[in-house]
Write a structure and sequence with these properties.
Blueprint (H helix, E strand, L loop, with lengths): L5 E5 L4 H11 L3 E5 L12 E4 L1 H9 L3 H7 L1 E3 L1 E6 L2 E5 L8 E5 H14 L3 E3 L4 E6 L4 E5 L4 E4 L1 E4 L6 H6 L7 E12 L9 E6 L4 E6 L5 E8 L6 H6 L2 H11 L6 H6 L7 E8 L7 E2 L2 E3 L14 H18 L3 H29 L4 H16 L4 H4 L1 H4 L17
Parallel strand pairs: 1-2, 1-12, 2-8, 5-14, 12-19
Antiparallel strand pairs: 3-7, 4-7, 5-6, 9-10, 10-11, 13-16, 13-17, 14-15, 15-16, 18-19
Helix pairs in contact: 1-4, 1-9, 2-3, 2-9, 9-10
Amino acid sequence: MTTARTAIVIGSGIAGPVTALALHRAGITATVHEAYPATASGVGGTLALAPNGVAALRTVGADEAVTAIATPIMRSAMAVGSRHLDLPTLAGAPPLRVVHRAELHRVLHDRAVAEGVRFEYDRRLVDAEQTDSGVTARFEDGSTATADLLVGADGIRSRVRGLIDPSAPGPRFTGLLGFEAVARHEVDVEPGTMTFAFGRRGYYLYWPEPGGGTRWGANLPQQRPMSTVEARAVPAAQWLDTLRTTYGDDDPGRELMAASHADELQVAGSLQIMPPVPHWYRGRMVLVGDSAHAPSNSSGQGASLAIESAVQLARCLRDLPDVETAFAAYVRLRRARVEKVAARAARINHAKAPGPVARTLMPLLLPLMVRTMLDPEKTVAEEQRYVINWDAPVTMEPALR
């Protein structure tokens, strides 16, 4: 094990609490520092947890509490115009779980607190100074914190990423804006079914909401990127009018938008991804989660990959003799996997806003796509069946598949 015994974790979203929990299990005491003045209660829409993400949560003892608040998606379908086809499922794999981000954060936060993890709020990182034996974080309010290492779990606009590598790339706009709501409209599908729908002017998905109604998410094509603040400055009623126009020719898109309320519309702003980040660590600072790898939401893997990376980082620090060797092994274990997922999601993004010729051909090609391009054994089997063996020692040798 490294000589590291303490860690500063920057960011208390999803990756932050899991990192602190995993480090705790590896014998390292972590304190989580959050820029905002309180927890993320009530903030954010719905996210998906793939089977591999739930398996990684099992390592930190959070899987049962998370699945208890999540909705299992047992089956999925694709719709193009009036054509609907059931999609094949991955044999033997547990279901996808959809969960409200704020509820997931609450469960992870409470689990971490129960295990003795301390959270500090109103601690916006501005700089960090490294020495041979540790790192000191400096915060906007003038306070400091010192530990053996610093973990940047501070999301796609990571401050830690810039401290590690000032020339690191920033997030890229996908050409889509994200929205979500629950419609007072019941779709005629079995509970636990998620439908991916390609409308005439935009992509959307939906599933029956436990307790009534239909939860939907829409990816609206947009030429100019908008920050979340900019997007939320536009009145929600105006956005809903735009969505009703965009999906007005689609079934059930038309009904879903008509039966949704502006005051319940979640506006996410531009959907963004991280291009490959050249340097995940420098000295005693390292990245985890979206700060290092943020695939498009099309992947269904963003949160799951962040959770996996937190666990793998802790394993490497537990088993290897020094911080730099541990960080190098961590990158070796993670980079190829996350970049492969990101590449798959990027291909899906291109299909979310098809041109007129593609829209015409899609209904005709749909059965062939289901048998070939959408075969889960060929597309997501490797991703979703991935399970981290916490008890297996990490070595300095290249990982064997």
